[in-house]
């Protein structure tokens, strides 16, 4: 933080709240939850202390990725209304502090996962951090409207990490959960992009609504919902889950598909407040929490 005295500007250390903000705690909550559910749905129980450690590592890894994302995109954040108050663009923290914080968290989370849990979980955690930072943030974000499509894999790793923490391996069920999150990401973020399109346009970020227009974006939301729905329901007919998850997944996905269809098939009016898009975006977050909660409930109650 920089304050001005009568003599000269004085640089003060950032507050703990600023470092917490760097980790994107709202995004982290969903990452931690899906990772926890992947662990709890695994066929092998894990000691509570080790389980807590694994989830801590996932949280720290996600926080590291968020901090490095904010470090690299400080210039973009300064140009967008919804991100301008973040620690770096608002001047409450210098970029070097954010970089050191992000790298430190990343290294610590992977090393701790390796030493306390197992190499498989640590490797996937490292891949997820590097994918989010290097592939999505550095390579894709500013270059292609497919940034969310490919970059969505970064947020899909936690179920695999949680499962691997418990079992030391991966299997078809966590892979399908990875696929669900991967295919869920484009409709989720494109719904957001539709009603914050001006922000992305001002910052020069080639999000799909900016590059291809709203009509194409709406159609893509509808198209991506189809394979997402298949991935969501697939564990039941494949015999990987029971009827509890099957029924819950069909019901929740049907609502998602309804909201997605409302967005996909409508036209935008001049005075439109984007209510269907905001409804889809809000529901999509609850949807993922519900789906993974149903997965754990099915495992423990079946």
UniProtKB/TrEMBL annotation:
It is a multi-pass membrane protein. The keyword Cell membrane applies. Gene3D superfamilies: UbiA prenyltransferase. InterPro entries: Protohaem_IX_farnesylTrfase, UbiA_prenyltransferase, UbiA_prenylTrfase_CS, UbiA_sf. Pfam families: UbiA (PF01040). It comes from the Bacteria. It is an enzyme of class 2 (transferase). Pathway: Porphyrin-containing compound metabolism; heme O biosynthesis; heme O from protoheme: step 1/1. Keywords: Cell membrane, Heme biosynthesis, Membrane, Transferase, Transmembrane, Transmembrane helix. The chain crosses the membrane at residues 27-46, 52-72, 93-113, 119-139, 160-183, 221-238, 244-268, 280-301. Signal peptide: none annotated. It is found in: Cell membrane. CDD domains: PT_UbiA_Cox10. GO terms for cellular component: plasma membrane. It catalyses: heme b + (2E,6E)-farnesyl diphosphate + H2O = Fe(II)-heme o + diphosphate. Its EC number is 2.5.1.141. One of its GO terms (biological process) is heme O biosynthetic process. Converts heme B (protoheme IX) to heme O by substitution of the vinyl group on carbon 2 of heme B porphyrin ring with a hydroxyethyl farnesyl side group. Belongs to the UbiA prenyltransferase family. Protoheme IX farnesyltransferase subfamily. Carbon 2 of the heme B porphyrin ring is defined according to the Fischer nomenclature. HAMAP family: CyoE_CtaB. This is Protoheme IX farnesyltransferase. It comes from Stakelama marina. The gene is ctaB.
């Amino acid at each position: 933080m920089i304050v001005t005295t009568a003599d000269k500007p004085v640089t003060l250390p950032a507050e703990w709240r600023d470092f917490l903000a760097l980790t994107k705690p709202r995004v982290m909550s969903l990452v931690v939850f899906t990772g926890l559910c992947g662990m709890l749905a695994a066929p092998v129980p894990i000691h509570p202390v080790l389980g807590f450690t694994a989830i801590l590592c996932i949280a720290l890894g996600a926080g590291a990725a968020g901090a490095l994302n904010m470090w690299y995109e400080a210039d973009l954040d300064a140009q967008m209304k919804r991100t301008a108050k973040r620690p770096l663009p608002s001047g409450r923290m210098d970029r070097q502090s954010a970089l050191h914080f992000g790298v430190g968290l990343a290294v610590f989370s992977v090393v701790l996962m390796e030493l306390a849990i197992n190499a498989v979980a640590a490797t996937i955690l490292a891949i997820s951090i590097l994918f989010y930072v290097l592939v999505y943030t550095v390579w894709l974000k500013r270059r292609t409207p497919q940034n969310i499509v490919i970059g969505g894999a970064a947020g899909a790793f936690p179920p695999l990490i949680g499962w691997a923490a418990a079992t030391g391996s991966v299997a078809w069920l966590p892979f399908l959960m990875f696929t669900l999150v991967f295919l869920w990401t484009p409709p989720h973020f494109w719904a957001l992009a539709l009603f914050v399109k001006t922000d992305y346009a001002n910052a020069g970020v080639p999000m799909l609504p900016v590059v291809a227009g709203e009509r194409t974006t709406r159609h893509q939301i509808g198209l991506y919902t189809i394979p997402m729905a298949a991935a969501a329901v697939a564990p039941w007919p494949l015999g990987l889950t029971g009827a509890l998850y099957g029924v819950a997944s069909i019901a929740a996905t049907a609502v998602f598909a309804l909201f997605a269809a409302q967005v996909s098939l409508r036209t935008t009016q001049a005075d439109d407040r984007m209510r269907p898009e905001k409804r889809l975006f809000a529901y999509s977050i609850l949807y993922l929490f519900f789906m993974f909660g149903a997965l754990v409930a099915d495992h423990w109650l079946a």
